[in-house]
Design brief:
Blueprint (H helix, E strand, L loop, with lengths): L2 H13 L4 H12 L7 H8 L3 H13 L3 E7 L4 E6 L2 H34 L15 H9 L3 E10 L4 E9 L8 E9 L9 H24 L6 E11 L2 E10 L4 H6 L3 E12 L2 E7 L1 H15 L6
Antiparallel strand pairs: 1-2, 3-4, 4-5, 5-9, 6-7, 7-8, 8-9
Helix pairs in contact: 1-2, 2-4, 6-9
Length: 303
């Protein structure tokens, strides 16, 4: 292997998590293939002190880049063999993909919560909310609704902007809290028939709802909470779901309600032109949200 090639490989291997010294030693072992090598010859060829070399080999072994084979006990002699590069790279990529997926889930829940906390000090009125969503929020404020939080997310890679609002409706039998999330895509095409995209956005809302309700139950914000379930259905042809919670058997709430599962809200994905509107709330507020969106977009034939 030429020196210039080695320099490139050493830099590339550092992108996969090795230090420069670890990359140099690993490359030397790769050149020896399945046969591997012992410290003595590696020390001579690489001009690295024996104690330093043992430390590097130990780290490579801990990271899973090499195998250590004992070939003699007295005096002890060890052979070090590089694991196949593609096998290692594939393992690293699989682990990274798992971590990325985990981070995406955390972004959905924790990021949304922290962003709302960040926005708490912002005075949310019709004049201060984002212009892109004012025509949907203004009719709600006129009905004495309140905007609890606003989170705006721009994503160039996904080609969209997301407006996420926590709202407090004027009335509600179980809770006045409800919400509106608008996914506005920047490509000029009608997405009303893109079932996969609509379902994917709805799934995000369902996952978020289930997570938040379980978390509230865990923190005793919902007294005597036991479980939550979401039953997918349709509202006027729109994909959606019914949200139920169950209270602990024998609890005060359960005895008062006298039902195993209690309907606490509805959720739906409403696609119009290049937007998908996700709405959720108790029945009366849910209906108001649906009407406001459709009226604002002048798609009366969808009702």
């Amino acid at each position: 292997m030429k020196d210039k090639e080695k320099e490139i490989y050493i830099q590339d291997l550092q992108d996969f998590g090795l230090t420069a010294d670890e990359a140099i030693v690993y490359l030397a072992l790769v050149e020896r293939g399945h046969n591997g090598d012992m410290v003595g010859r590696l020390k001579y060829n690489l001009q690295i002190a024996r104690t330093t070399l043992y430390g590097i080999l130990e780290k490579l072994s801990d990271k899973g880049w090499i195998e250590v084979l004992e070939i003699r006990k007295q005096p002890r002699r060890m052979k070090f063999i590089a694991k196949p590069p593609l096998e290692i790279f594939n393992e690293i990529l699989v682990n990274l993909e798992g971590k990325i997926e985990n981070l995406k889930q955390k972004r959905l829940y924790i990021g949304d919560t922290l962003d709302k906390l960040y926005q708490e000090k912002k005075e949310l009125t019709i004049d201060t909310i984002h212009p892109g969503s004012q025509k949907y929020i203004e009719p709600l404020i006129s009905k004495r609704w309140k905007v609890k939080s606003e989170v705006i997310e721009h994503s160039e890679s996904l080609g969209r902007i997301v407006y996420d609002y926590e709202l407090i409706g004027h009335k509600g039998t179980f809770t006045q809290e409800c919400g509106l999330i608008i996914f506005e895509y920047n490509y000029k095409r009608n997405i009303e028939n893109d079932i996969n995209l609509i379902q994917a956005n709805l799934n995000l809302l369902l996952s978020k709802t289930e997570y938040e309700i379980k978390n509230e139950g865990k923190n005793n914000e919902i007294p005597d909470f036991e479980d939550v379930k979401l039953e997918e259905t349709k509202f006027n042809g729109f994909l959606g779901a019914l949200v139920y919670i169950k209270f602990k058997e024998g609890s005060i709430v359960r005895n008062l309600i006298k039902e195993e599962w209690v309907l606490i809200g509805k959720e739906a994905a409403i696609p119009i032109k290049n937007k998908i509107f996700l709405i959720h709330g108790e029945d009366k507020n849910f209906q108001i949200l649906k009407e406001v969106i459709i009226n604002a977009e002048e798609f009366h034939h969808l009702v």
